Amino acid sequence: MEEAIAAVEAAAARRAPPVCPLCDRPIPPDAKSSRHHLTPRLKGGTHKGTVRLHQICHSAIHARFSETELAKRLADVESLKADPEIAAFVDWVRTKRPGFHAPTRMTKERRASRKPRD
Asked: Region Disordered: which residues (predicted)?
């Protein structure tokens, strides 16, 4: 299955670069990118659909929200774009070149809300 997905993505990349549905910038072949499960796998989203995002966009989502939040209220691109924190991030990242990447840190609020592991 993974090989088939890779083959389809490679063929699509030869035609035109995909566009990140979060920031609406093209994703060049040499840019860091990844697939985002719209419903997190841990919440039953293994076969519910994915979207290709710039890695920085994908990291921004997971730095701000828990799997539960993503599953309950942010399980589609429109909901993500409507969130004020993501909207502010998108406004900022849209000014960057399509291949731009920078490390992303988890927000203080998200870090504080995480349960300590035993």
From this structure: 25-50, 98-118
